[in-house]
Write a structure and sequence with these properties.
Layout: E1 3-8, E2 14-19, E3 24-28, H1 38-41, H2 50-75, H3 80-89, H4 94-106, H5 112-126, H6 131-140, H7 145-155, H8 158-172, H9 181-189, H10 194-200
Antiparallel strand pairs: 1-2, 2-3
Helix pairs in contact: 2-4, 3-4, 5-7, 6-7, 8-10
């Protein structure tokens, strides 16, 4: 099988490759695995073996998945694990979905820690809860432990958690006296750290 044509559009990395059997592949060159130098291999008249054809098909599938992923990213911030699931739900092979999401992460278009920070900021405006509850919320949304911990460190400072705790006490109508064990239990259940509870509820308050 031979290459009949290779065309580029406004994006020079995107190639449309026409083959002698009448088929066409639209792909991004970066997704090719078996061709170290696509510009030297994909030229009119070049003969392609089975491995190269499989590579073209895979790269084309990656490019189609990338377009879907970019449309999702354009709508809202995405977390990588959930984006992979969304691509799979749209018929993408897992390996294809992971390859595409990895590339978007390298480009900075998908960033789990950024997603986590934005979610934390939004959540903290809407609800008063502690660090462990916020961590559980991130994990339930597919954010990994490392990205979650880093986002918490950046966003939920000791001062921020103290302010959330005061809001929680006020909203729930709870006293701040050190002898109120019910209030302490409610604060623990709401995910506040022992440090925040200890600093906020003292015998002399």
């Amino acid at each position: 099988m031979t290459v009949l044509s290779v065309k580029t559009g406004t994006d020079p990395e995107v190639l449309t490759v026409g083959l002698s059997v009448g088929s066409f592949f639209c792909l991004r060159a970066v997704y090719l695995r078996s061709m170290d130098d696509a510009s030297a291999v994909l030229v009119p008249g070049a003969s392609l073996g089975d491995e190269a054809l499989e590579d073209l098909a895979r790269a084309s599938a990656c490019y189609e998945a990338e377009k879907v992923a970019l449309s999702l990213v354009a709508r809202s911030e995405q977390v990588s694990s959930r984006l992979i699931l969304k691509l799979r739900a749209r018929g993408c092979d897992r390996a294809i979905a992971e390859t595409v999401v990895d590339r978007l992460r390298v480009l900075g278009l998908v960033d789990d820690e950024r997603f986590a920070c934005l979610w934390l900021q939004s959540r903290m405006r809407r609800k008063a809860e502690g660090r462990s509850a916020l961590l559980a919320g991130l994990v339930s949304r597919g954010v990994g432990r490392e990205a979650s911990a880093s986002a918490l460190e950046r966003t939920v400072t000791a001062e921020a958690e103290d302010a959330l705790l005061r809001r929680f006490l006020e909203e729930e109508g709870l006293p701040g006296g050190g002898g109120d064990f019910g209030a302490r239990r409610r604060l623990r259940d709401a995910g506040f750290s022992p440090r925040a509870i200890r600093d906020a509820i003292r015998p002399d308050t």
